[in-house]
Amino acid sequence: MRSLLFFSCLFLLLMGCKPKPDLQGFPVDKWKADKGGCQGVRKTLVPDFKKIRQILKGTTSNDFVEIFGKPDINQIADRNEEYYVYFLEAGPHCEDITKRSEAASIAIRFSSVGLASEITFQQGTPVK
C-alpha cells in the first residue's frame, strides 16, 4: 500500500514538471499586445499559431495564461471543463467585452485537470 502511494505521488510530481512548450519563435509579445484582436495583429499570426497548435495540447491553463496572456473570455463548460477564448479580429467586444461577438476567435478547451485538450478556430465563442 505504501509503495502504491509513493508511486502515485511520484507520478503526480513528475507530471507537474512538464516543461513549457517550444513555441518555435511564435511572437507572443505581438499576440499579447493585441488585446481582443482589436488591432488586427492576431489575425496575421494565425498561420504561425496553427504551426504550434499540436505542441500546445497538454499545456496547463496556468502556463497558457503566462505564455499568451489573460484570455479575452473564460467560459466554464460541462464536467468542470473550461474554455479560454482569444479573439482574432475586431468586433463588438472591442467596445464592451460583455457584448456578444461573432468575430473570429481561437478557443482552447481545458480538461477537468486543467490541461489543454482541444484548440479550435471559430466565429464567436464555443459555449452558447
UniProtKB/TrEMBL annotation:
InterPro entries: BamE-like (IPR037873). Keywords: Signal. It comes from the Bacteria. This is Lipoprotein SmpA/OmlA domain-containing protein.
